[in-house]
């Protein structure tokens, strides 16, 4: 069981996390993570930071009331062991999907760890494939010379700069 100071209960907190948090999803669950705010001036920080708070969303799609409560208890138990890994002041919402009812505790733990790590990963750290909408590399000055008819590469042989 989570301590009362680690529970997220207010609708406003859930709304804030769902609007502003980073999302990550796995087969059986999804998480929304909101990192703690950085204080404007750290020298005026007089009170202790709030502990991390966690909320759970288990919809009726997961199952009946007994199944939903069982899934919530299992998720709460898994999260409790990971509270020390969350930074103080952070907010986390764990949302159970219907397949969470049939998974074992260890599988839930692995998926939760993976989802939390993905949600905490800094933006831009994930490798994305460049598609149609992706940024194009900036042409170097040699591209202008190619338009003039000079197709010889520069001394290094590189036509594009690496980003």
Commentary on this structure:
The protein starts with 10 loop residues before the first helix and ends in a 16-residue tail after the last helix. The mean pLDDT is 82. It is globular and about 70 Å long. Helix 2 crosses helix 3. The chain has a domain at 4-38 and 49-120: Ribosomal Protein S5, domain 2 (2-Layer Sandwich), CATH 3.30.230. Strand 1 and strand 2 form a beta hairpin. It has four helices and four strands, in the order αβββαβαα. The protein has a four-stranded mixed sheet, sandwiched between helices. The longest helix is centred in the middle third of the chain and has 16 residues, at 65-80. It has 163 residues and is an alpha+beta fold.
